[in-house]
Specification:
By secondary structure, the chain is of the alpha+beta class. The chain folds into 3 domains: about 1-35 and about 285-415, no CATH class; about 45-55 and about 140-275; about 55-140. The protein is built from 10 helices and 11 strands. It has helices spanning about 1-15, 55-100, 105-115, 145-150, 255-280, 305-320, 325-340, 355-370, 375-385, 390-415; strands spanning about 20-30, 45-50, 160, 165-170, 175, 180-195, 195-210, 215-220, 225-230, 240, 285-295. Strands 3-2-4-8-9 form a 5-stranded mixed β-sheet. A hairpin with a 2-residue loop joins strand 6 and strand 7. Helix 7 packs antiparallel against helix 8. The longest helix has about 50 residues, at about 55-100. The two termini are about 65 Å apart. The model is unreliable at about 1-15 (pLDDT under 50).
Length: about 425
């Protein structure tokens, strides 16, 4: 009987130990509260984009058109006067030929051979009239400002248009770039032929230039009072572009590359501004990815943990479309996890809820509490985890979660929550 009992205990011990904590990357979207909300909360906003260089562009274009018109007028005048100039040249030539023909042969010989003069008349050349070329001025790119505003400038949680709206505007200062240059770099390359290694210096070339697109933005209320405005200093710093390295000198025609960098810089800066505005005064829809844990075992001893995982997974996904339903599913998972923690025994490696599973459940709960803004329950878990002997990885993860909840608390306080 004792032998049978021992065998049963061994089987039970093996089944409990045959468990491991697994994780899966879960992505979800939540609404981040503004750090400096506008009070009272507005309902609407209007966004627009303008370019500070538009007036200069217009001035350059106006001068270009004036220069072209003057060039055309000069051409038409010269064209009309061309027959007169040809006629005058012909008449002059005829007079000079008549005078030449009237000279004696002796006079002509003396002028040519003695005086070394060749006075034979030559008809004046009358150049054909031509239009003077007027070069197109170098202007900064003009954009469809309405399209830019509609695509990149929005305030989450507010409706576009309407009365008493916030005025959200961005001013473009214009794309700038330095003259491209070819940069050479010597690299050592080793080849092996017939078991003999040879190392040689190989010169590589690439195109290099720097670029930037300064911008500023402002948000004002319906009374014109400034709520938030800045000219981000990072937009004034030049970014270096380095083209692909080749063994031959590359072409200096970089118009396509330059245009691509201009478009990229414009889009990235506008997205950055929109994030700054939404982080401060908007209800920003924020994407987040984290590791959610579950338990893999050879029996059904951890089905409850799997059920919680499935409920939480569904809840996180629903937050973006139906926050209430998503929170309900998360609370369902929270209840299961907390019930499982009643069995936690971090000193017993054979326990159903051992230390590894306990820590995994705690981190799952922290993410669920973050998504549902339950900072009170999260504080208790943060304290408990802080007293535990964690791995370096878990310690760094705990520090990250602590910082997230500090930011969440500040935002909740700013919003009167």
């Amino acid at each position: 009987m004792k032998l049978f009992t021992g065998i049963l205990f061994s089987i039970f011990s093996l089944s409990v130990m045959a468990q491991s904590v697994k994780d899966e990357n879960i992505s979800y979207t939540y609404i981040k509260l503004p750090s400096n909300p506008v009070q009272p909360k507005p309902s609407n906003y209007i966004s627009n984009v303008s370019a500070a260089y538009e007036a200069e562009n217009q001035k350059l274009m106006a001068q270009y058109e004036a220069d072209k018109a003057q060039a055309e007028a000069d051409y038409q005048r010269d064209l009309a006067d061309y027959p007169n100039k040809v006629k005058a040249a012909d008449e002059k030539y005829e007079r000079e030929m008549e005078a030449w023909n009237n000279k004696s042969t002796a006079s002509k010989i003396i002028e040519k051979q003695v005086l070394n003069e060749n006075n034979h008349p030559v008809k004046d050349y009358v150049a054909q009239p031509y239009r003077r070329n007027v070069a197109m001025p170098v202007m900064k790119t003009a954009y469809d400002n309405n399209a830019l505003a509609s695509t990149y400038l929005f305030i989450d949680g507010l409706q576009k248009g309407g009365a008493n709206a916030l005025n959200y505007s961005v001013t473009l200062q214009g794309f700038e770039s330095t003259q491209p240059k070819v940069v050479s770099e010597v690299k050592k390359e080793t080849s092996r032929v017939n078991n003999v290694s040879t190392t040689v210096n190989v010169t590589y070339y690439h195109i290099e230039f720097t670029y930037r697109h300064p911008m500023s933005f402002s948000v004002t209320n319906s009374l014109g009072q400034e709520i938030y405005a800045a000219a981000p200093a990072e937009f004034t710093e030049f970014t270096t572009y380095k083209g692909p390295a080749t063994k031959s000198s590359p072409s200096m025609d970089i118009s396509a590359t330059l245009k691509a960098m201009e478009d990229k810089c414009l889009q990235e800066n506008l997205k950055s501004i929109n994030h700054m505005v939404n982080d401060r005064i908007g209800y920003e829809r924020t994407d987040k990815t984290f590791e959610m844990y579950y338990v893999k075992s050879k029996n059904e001893s951890h089905n409850d943990i799997q059920d919680a995982f499935n409920a939480a997974n569904l809840g996180f996904k629903m937050l973006n479309t139906n926050e209430a339903q998503g929170s309900m599913k998360l609370n369902e998972a929270i209840e299961i996890w907390n019930k499982a923690l009643e069995e936690s025994d971090i000193e017993n490696k054979k326990a159903r809820i051992d230390k590894d599973i306990t820590v995994a459940i705690y981190f799952n709960l922290l993410e669920a509490y973050f998504a549902t803004r339950n900072t009170t329950a999260a504080d208790e878990i943060l304290k408990t985890l802080g007293r535990m002997d964690l791995s370096n990885r878990d310690r760094k993860l705990l520090e990250s979660r602590e910082n997230s909840f500090i930011d969440l608390k500040l935002r909740m306080a700013a919003n009167g929550m």
